[in-house]
Amino acid sequence: MQLASLLTIGFSFGAAALLLLGNLLQRREPVSFQAKAAGFLLLADLTALQWLHLQYLLGRPDAVLSKVYLGLLFGVAPSFYFYSRQLLGGVAAYRRRDVLHWLPFTLTLLSYHWAFLSAFAVGSGYLLWLCKTVYGLRGQRRRFHLELLSLAGLLAIAVAVIVLGLLGPLLDDGRFISVYSLLLGLAFFTVALTLLRFPNLAGEVSEAVQAAYAESTLKNIDKAAVLAKLDKLMSEDKLYTLEGISLAAVAEPLAISPHQLSELINTEFGQGFSRYIREHRVAAAKQLLLADPQASVLSIGLTVGFATQSNFYAAFKDVTGITPGQYRKKPD
């Protein structure tokens, strides 16, 4: 098991570096600066835990028997909460009372045994919040099925971590560290795989939350007229070809608010704004792939509004189940 743990820890370091680099290179980040900072803190916290696990496995047992290790354990839950709250809880602003989330750090003053158990007990409270919030998204599973399964996978890992932590005093130290490092590595793998499969996950989760919890804002608008204008913007003006298109940019010519447009698309088409734009781009790309066999796949992707070839391939396969090249070659 020790060899598997060492390999998993090595993977965690590589995944953390790639996640950090990918986040820095992302030009349009759907979360606030504060949430983004909390994400960096969470990533650093988990990576530091894996580093200390590595030191333990290399023969330094004092690496995990320290206040630093306890502090990192207490830091995981609140940093994850602050990062995910805006996406899963619909809360964008940070409030003065949020400082209370860091009070459990004072429990590191207890004896190691009780501080260790307290860290995972505190994590249990945040886990209950996460369970409740994800459960609240169940009404969106029709358009959010695979993404919700990914969140459920991370939730299952979180449950396993909490159970392991509470059972920690009953386990051999070496076995606990090995299993814990394996679970953290599995979490890194799940996050990396999820973001590769769903690069727009953050925005889509946020839209799903708004659809699940927001009160209707469409009572005083002529939905038929707005839908007709929206169809014209897409079919004739091809607004979807604009790189970096936003809810605000589409809502303005419709004379409605971005929130109203988001709800309209959710209720009428059963999907979020990101998915709506993606499907229009893919539909246009399908026509161009067959109409102009000499055009490169990259040029077609750029023409319909995708920023990169990789984004085009991922979106096309997500919508159609095949790659653009396979679509172009398939028989009529």
State the main characteristics.
332 residues, mainly alpha
Give the SSE layout.
Elements: H1 2-25, H2 33-57, H3 67-89, H4 112-136, H5 145-167, H6 173-197, H7 201-213, H8 223-235, H9 247-254, H10 258-269, H11 273-291, H12 297-303, H13 309-320, H14 324-329
Question: What would you say this structure looks like, in words?
Answer:
It contains 14 helices and no strands. By secondary structure, the protein is mainly alpha-helical. The chain is elongated and about 70 Å long. The termini are far apart. 32% of the residues are buried. The model has no long low-confidence stretch (mean pLDDT 81).
Mean pLDDT: 81
Beta-strand share of residues:
under 5%
Largest sheet: none
> What quaternary form is this?
single chain
End-to-end Cα distance, whole Å, is 53 Å
Structural class: mainly alpha
Runs in which pLDDT lies below 50 for 5 or more consecutive residues are none
**Which sequence of SSEs, written as H and E, runs from N to C?**
HHHHHHHHHHHHHH
Backbone shape: elongated
User: Which value, in Å, is the CA radius of gyration?
Assistant: 23 Å
- What count of helical segments does DSSP give? 14
**Helical coverage, percent range:** over 70%
Work out the number of β strands.
Answer: 0
